[in-house]
Amino acid sequence: MRTLLLTALAALVALPAFAADEFKNEEEKSFYAIGYNIGQNMASNFAPSKAELEILKRGLADGANSAKPEVTVEEESPKWAAFQQKRRAGIIEDQKAKGAAYLAKAAKEKGAKKLESGLVYIEQKAGSGEHPKPTDKVKVNYRGTLINGLEFDSSYSRGQPAEFPLGGVVKCWTEGLQKMKVGGKAKLVCPAEIAYADRGQPPRIPGGATLVFEVELLGITAGTPPNMPGPGPMTMPPHPPIPPPQTPPAPKQ
Questions:
Q1: Which alpha helices (H) appear in 65-202, and where do they start and end?
Q2: Which of 89, 100, 201 is nearest to 144 (CA)?
Q3: Do residue 48 and residue 143 come from a single domain?
Q4: How far apart are CA 176 and CA 181, in angstroms?
Q5: Which residues constitute the domain of residue 10?
Q6: Residue 13 domain-assigned (yes or no)
Q7: Which are the contacts of 224, defined by CB distance < 8 A and separation ≥ 6?
Q8: Whether residue 125 sits in one domain with residue 55
């Protein structure tokens, strides 16, 4: 019944928020962090309305107080997988529609170039020297946001540039950074198809999301092609290195 527990705890996001100095102890902070993290997952998988959050809150209270349930949980639980699949499909469709509109607007910005892949590349500052190749290792500062401006990752926030093989990240980055030179800055507006696709990276990146990256290319380290067993596509990590959120794990049943 772990899913039931996670669903019930997600109702915490409907409760009034507390200021950081209103928590009485570290345990209260942990409970809040657990609730916030589960709420993010709920948003990515179910996108509940305010009315639905109220129902979740009612279920949480009844469960915590051992009250008689208003529905038969054993009858409802087999439906949850299909319910989640349906909700996620709706989230992806909505994200793609909003992303298409955002991409069309971005393509009209001054200096914007829309590439065949769908990437909108906007140079903000010209660099100098060589362009990186997919086999090179790059050093960058960057900030990643959803199209609503919500930041999901930033090397600036961590206070340390990121370094990684350019051929080992999402296609949007591999393609976009090859157009840059050291010292240059650019904005990459990435459709889902060349970013995280329909899978997203919950809870921070919904499936089907168009992403916006502001990237500063700090350096290039020349690399060599990896040893390949034979012809065929390389197996790569799906995204730039994004550290996991520092929140407590979900409680076990």
A1: 73-76, 80-106, 155-158, 171-177
A2: 201
A3: no
A4: 11
A5: 2-70
A6: yes
A7: 135
A8: no
